[in-house]
Amino acid sequence: MLKINKTTKSLISLILILVSISFAVYFLNKHQNLIHEFLRISPFLFIEILILYFVMLLILILIFKYTVQLNKIKIHFKQNLFLNMVSLFMNFFIPGQSGPIYRAYYMKTEHKLKFSKFSMSTLLYFGIYAIISLFFVAFGIFNSYLLILILICLSLGFYVFFRYYLKKIKKVKFKINFKTILCLILVTFLQFIVQGIIYYLEIHSIKKDLPLKDVISYTGTAGLALFVALTPGAIGIRESFLILTEKINHLNNSTIIFANLIDRSIYIVFLLIIGILITIFQINKKLKYKKTKNNLDLIN
Predict the structure, then answer these.
(1) Packing angle between helix 178-204 and helix 115-141, nearest 10 degrees?
(2) Within 10 A of 112 (CB to CB), how many other CB atoms are there?
């Protein structure tokens, strides 16, 4: 088995962060309309959404906590925070949603978690995410009776998926903890609620007479776009997805595009703050390492 020392791990992490920052600079240069749009946003709307994105970060920390708990691994809060911040940064600025790959690499090197086990626990989260996305879409389209039927069908679909999942995990000796899975479902549902509030505030700033059902279906559709997000930040992918489902969301093209511009403009600021926090984390880590090394040298 290939062993990687601490210096090499730090170097690889630093390279990945520098690549992400390079993509960020390139991205902002190519999408200067986001900067112009940001300057037009109401200060109150900006603060509200920025706070909600930090709430979302805490939810993602909980999601990852329960995901790795399926592998009987406990991850320290600071470690979890750093890992999620880097993942968000990479997901937005590097093509192909590279965050999960970085998390898999990190868990392998730091916690000796096999890629197969990490993949199975991540697959379970994505399965839950997909089911909740479809439920949100259905909630925005159908009446209460049809919604109950659809909920039953989605539950059966999740059951079939889960049975298939159970068969697969036996091959990687993966143990199921139903309490942890329940926590993962609840926190993922909370993720959609917070995301829905963010979308509501953004769209409501453009279109005042906004039915709640439309926001719910919009949130579900935007969630499904994650699975085809090949471009940095899913630029163009999410917008196309939402425009193609215009009849479901009952929002016109201009509202969808403008709302997404507002969202991305604020999210860019959120990521810039995260970028600063990541840098502080890395500097503190280096200083602690040097201090420990100097103390050991003095002892010797």
Answers:
(1) 50
(2) 9
- Name the DSSP class of 176: P
Q: Residue 280 corresponds to which tokens in the numbers above? A: 């502080």
Distance CA 229, CA 60 (A): 18
Structure confidence by residue, pLDDT tens digits, 113-141: 888 788 888 888 988 898 888 888 887 67
Q: How far apart are CA 96 and CA 126, in angstroms?
A: 16
- What's the confidence (pLDDT) of residue 35? 58
Given CA atoms 96, 191, 55, 217 in this order, what sign does their dihedral have?
positive
Of residues 221, 177, 189, 184, the one with CA closest to residue 203: 221
Which comes out higher in pLDDT, residue 75 or 210?
A: 75
174, 113 contact by CB (below 8 A): no
In whole angstroms, what is the distance from residue 241 CA to residue 223 CA? 10
Rounded alpha-carbon distances, angstroms, from residue 244 to 49, 52, 222, 238? 26, 27, 11, 10
Q: Enumerate long-range contacts of 247-251, CB under 8 Å, 24 or more apart.
A: 248/137, 248/140, 248/141, 248/217, 248/221, 249/140, 249/214, 249/217, 249/218, 249/221, 250/211, 250/214, 251/203, 251/207, 251/214, 251/218
Torsion angle, alpha carbons of 4, 10, 13, 18, to 10: -140
Contact 32, 261 (CB under 8 A): no
Return the residue matching tokens 């590097």: 94
pTM: 0.77
Burial 193-228 (b: 16+ CB within 10 A, else e): ebbbbbbbbbbebeeeebeeebbbbbbbbbbbbbee
